[in-house]
Amino acid sequence: MTVSVKMPDLGEGISKATVASWLVKVGDRVNEGDDLVELVTDKASFNVPAAVTGIVRQILVQEGEEITIGGDLAVIE
């Protein structure tokens, strides 16, 4: 089963964020709750945790790229 890691709604009128750094790489095993990626906005920085335990199969947004709410960041299998 594959699960898409989505850009969460960060509230406060934030509609997009920039990927500051990935804390994992393709092939890494992650546990539910592990931080995957750091996102930055003009207001703050946020870490996005894994919603499931599994293997990181794809990173879809590279460091320095922007993503909007609901966009796919990565795939965990």
Overall 3D geometry? Answer: globular
Q: pLDDT under 50 segments (min length 5)?
A: none
Provide the gyration radius in Å. 12 Å
Helix/strand order: EEEEEEEE
Q: Biggest sheet, open or closed, and with what strands and sense?
A: 4 strands, antiparallel
Distance between the amino and carboxyl termini: 6 Å
In what order do the strands lie side by side in the largest sheet? 1-8-6-3
Q: What is the structural class?
A: mainly beta
By DSSP (H or I, 4+ residues per run), the number of helices equals 0
Q: Write down the overall mean pLDDT.
A: 94
Q: Approximately how much helix is present in the residues?
A: under 10%
Number of E-state strands: 8
Proportion of beta-strand residues = over 45%
